[in-house]
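Lab meeting, item 3. Inverse folding demo.
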């Protein structure tokens, strides 16, 4: 029997999963997949690391596909395609761990009730993350269920780093900066510890630039500040989210435009950012390919905000040793990377335009006071690592260095 760990990222209409084998202290990805169209016409796709693909429409003749049916389909697929495997742990991506959780959590009936109290903090994600956990508890009753929080990495911040300038009672009630993308930051920092241990002990900014985007300042391995706040709306503009916004705009939309909370939510989460500004797409590749001025403006605004936040985070860190770019845009969009990092010699970043264009791992000049690196993030692997650690296995992601 092979012991495997399943990772689950359950959203409102989709469930992403990955299967990792644990052997000799290492995690090897065996497969990844997606059930899309939950609640409507649901499709199942999966790809094994051998390249073999499966794709089918889920049968909805008896019941519309929900998270439970989706997880049962994953179980059936694993039993058929990866026979001889034993799912020992299921690691769940959970967007919000509230003010409480700074570490992954072994789920039981009691703490799932605590997690439910965080639903109002992330109404578009948390209820579906928890639906995924409940469905997995039924489908894989013998496996340990582990919640891995996107907020946990930032939970060491002191009051001043996380509060808003509101009366203290709001902070005490939980209205505070939580920060997100923590699993990505943790993964990147572990890789950095392994590959560049000296840099990892210093002052680091990680720019997670994907469909969702944020920056995190890390000092000696600890998150110091992040651009995301109470929700995953704050900070950088994103694919469809607005990023930083004067709260007065929301008041204006309510008072003058008579927009409801639901309409404003829709505008700020789904129709702003790159998509809203360009009127074309949330996809950076499409914007780069477009000759429309609105597409150029959207990219220029994205770059401008990223540069501004890098400056702010440097001030919080009191200097900088290393900047890491990651996420779909950070890993691939060479021109966006160049635009963000150029003319930053004043904080010690000397970008090497040619190394960047050649897609090298280090994209700063030799001797640049700040080393700029491109690293691929892997949140699924981080979840699998946390889950196997929870099961008492040795840290399998990278050897412990520091
Ligand atoms: P998510 O946050 O959903 O995980 P990703 O990290 O996959 O998103 O990032 C998606 C973004 O990365 C999209 O805007 C996409 O256009 C961009 N991207 C991916 N590949 C490239 C590329 N080769 N050039 C420019 N942008 C890219």
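The presenter then showed the designed sequence:
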């Amino acid at each position: 029997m092979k012991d495997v760990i399943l990772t689950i990222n359950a959203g409102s209409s989709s469930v992403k999963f990955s299967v990792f084998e644990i052997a000799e202290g290492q995690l090897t990805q065996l497969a990844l997949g997606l059930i899309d169209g939950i609640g409507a016409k649901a499709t199942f796709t999966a790809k094994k690391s051998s390249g073999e693909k499966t794709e089918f429409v889920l049968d909805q003749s008896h019941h519309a596909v929900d998270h439970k049916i989706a997880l049962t389909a994953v179980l059936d697929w694993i039993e058929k395609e990866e026979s001889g495997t034993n799912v020992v742990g299921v690691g769940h991506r959970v967007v919000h761990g509230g003010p409480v959780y700074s570490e992954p959590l072994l789920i039981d009936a009691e703490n799932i009730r605590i997690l439910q109290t965080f639903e109002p903090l992330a109404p578009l994600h948390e209820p579906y993350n928890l639906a995924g956990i409940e469905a997995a508890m039924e489908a894989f009753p013998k496996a340990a269920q582990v919640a891995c929080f996107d907020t946990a990495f930032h939970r060491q911040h002191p009051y001043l780093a996380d509060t808003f300038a509101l009366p203290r009672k709001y902070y005490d009630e939980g209205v505070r900066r939580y920060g997100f993308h923590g699993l990505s930051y943790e993964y990147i920092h572990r890789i950095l510890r392994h590959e560049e241990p000296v840099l990892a002990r210093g002052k680091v900014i990680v720019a997670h630039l994907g469909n969702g985007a944020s920056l995190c300042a890390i000092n000696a391995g600890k998150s110091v500040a992040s651009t995301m706040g109470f929700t995953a709306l704050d900070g950088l503009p994103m694919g469809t989210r607005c990023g930083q916004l004067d709260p007065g705009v929301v008041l204006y939309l309510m008072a003058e435009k008579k927009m409801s909370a639901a309409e404003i939510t829709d505008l700020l989460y789904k129709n702003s950012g790159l998509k809203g500004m360009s009127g074309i797409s949330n996809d950076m590749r499409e914007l780069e390919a477009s000759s429309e001025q609105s597409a150029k403006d959207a990219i220029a605004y994205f770059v401008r905000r990223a540069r501004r936040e890098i400056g702010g985070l440097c001030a919080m860190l009191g200097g900088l040793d290393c900047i890491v770019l990651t996420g779909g845009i950070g890993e691939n969009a060479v021109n966006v990377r160049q635009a963000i990092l150029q003319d930053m010699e004043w904080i010690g970043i000397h970008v090497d335009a040619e190394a960047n264009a050649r897609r090298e791992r280090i994209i700063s000049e030799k001797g640049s006071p700040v080393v700029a690196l491109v690293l691929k993030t892997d949140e699924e692997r981080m979840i699998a690592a946390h889950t196997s650690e929870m099961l008492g296995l040795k840290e399998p992601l990278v050897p412990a260095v520091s």
